[in-house]
Amino acid sequence: MSKPAGRVLSLLELLQSGGTRSVAELAERLGVDPRTVRRYAGQLTDLDVPVESVRGRYGGYRLGPGYRLPPLMLSDEEALAVLLGLVAGRRTGLVTAGHTASGAAGGTASETAGETASAKIRRVLPRHVARRLDVLLESLAFTDRPGEFDAPDADVLLTLADAVSHCRPVAMRYTGGDGRRGARTLHAYGIVAHSGRWYVTGRDAVSGEDRTFRLDRIADARTLPGSFEPPEGLDPAQRVVTGFATAEYRYEVSLRIRGTTEQIRARLPASVATLEEDEGNEGWQHVRIRAERLDWLPPVLASLDRPFVIESPAELRTLVTTFATRLTSYADHS
């Protein structure tokens, strides 16, 4: 690369750091005169990079919004940080699906936007940086298996975000957990990332019920005319986790546990159980859990290491007794 071309890219890197840079500062950083800085800025403009000239005492140059993303100049550390974020997002499902046509830039329609972005950055990484990245990735572990979750469509995510921001109804096609498809109209209150998935929570405009939907099950979404008033003091994240804890599952578990909220929440988070102080029994909490199965509860209750009383269902008492007997037999085994 010729020196002038390298300095033009250096100018772009300086402007991408943010704010307005004076001509004098840029000339000093680049080792050129002010006239050359203006010529470099013009060359960036010719390349459709949105460089703005700011007049006045504190004037100079800055980057403005453009019709497309300009080339990004990243340091080695910045490139590593971006790639690690993309990898973590892909491993936990917090990425959006791309629309890359087959054969375009080596991508396919099934690739996520994170995958195509990672590939573009990896192709231009210096070899020593790529080696550092490979070593680092080999040492990482994730609790969620790669590819376990489906990614939401980028257009769906952005449409829902716009509907939330402007309090506009949104129409969408949704596939439920049972595979049934249907049309929904939602007053969306917020978008929440939880345990590797994206959710949108709001009020169903037809039934009037509060609902939470997985974004990866939404085929498409479009905003509708009109507006609505969201509830005051709304906490979308709390609505999502509470919805999980109170969902209509097969079993309704009622417990009393002696301990603080923090002690109980360490094993039974808000997405699993609801807590309230047990009136008349100081230091005890009334715990309610909705669950499709009960076999996971005995070891969780044992890990709490707190006194507890099972109010219902009777099947849970049997499972806890069986679990305790099994632990005793293990301890007595020689």
Walk me through what this model shows.
The chain is of the alpha+beta class and 334 residues long. It contains 11 helices and 11 strands. The protein has helices at 3-16, 23-30, 34-46, 76-92, 113-124, 127-139, 154-166, 236-245, 261-265, 297-304, 314-332, and strands spanning 51-54, 60-63, 170-175, 181-194, 197-204, 210-214, 218-223, 251-258, 273-277, 284-291, 308-312. The chain has a 5-stranded antiparallel sheet with strand order 6-5-4-3-7. α2 crosses α3.
Topology overview:
Elements: H1 3-16, H2 23-30, H3 34-46, E1 51-54, E2 60-63, H4 76-92, H5 113-124, H6 127-139, H7 154-166, E3 170-175, E4 181-194, E5 197-204, E6 210-214, E7 218-223, H8 236-245, E8 251-258, H9 261-265, E9 273-277, E10 284-291, H10 297-304, E11 308-312, H11 314-332
Antiparallel strand pairs: 1-2, 3-4, 3-7, 4-5, 5-6, 8-10, 8-11, 9-10
Helix pairs in contact: 1-3, 2-3, 4-5
Highlighted features:
four-stranded antiparallel β-sheet; five-stranded antiparallel β-sheet; 334 residues; elongated; alpha+beta
Query: What order do the strands of the largest sheet run in, or round the barrel if closed?
Result: 6-5-4-3-7
Mean pLDDT: 81
By secondary-structure content and strand pairing, the structural class works out as alpha+beta
**Range of helix content:** 25-40%
Q: What best-fitting shape do the alpha-carbon axes yield? A: elongated
Using only C-alpha atoms, the radius of gyration works out to 28 Å
Low-confidence stretches: 100-110
Cα separation of the termini: 74 Å
* SS summary, helix count: 11
Indicate the proportion of strand residues. Answer: 15-25%
Helix-strand sequence: HHHEEHHHHEEEEEHEHEEHEH
Number of strands: 11
The biggest sheet amounts to: 5 strands, antiparallel
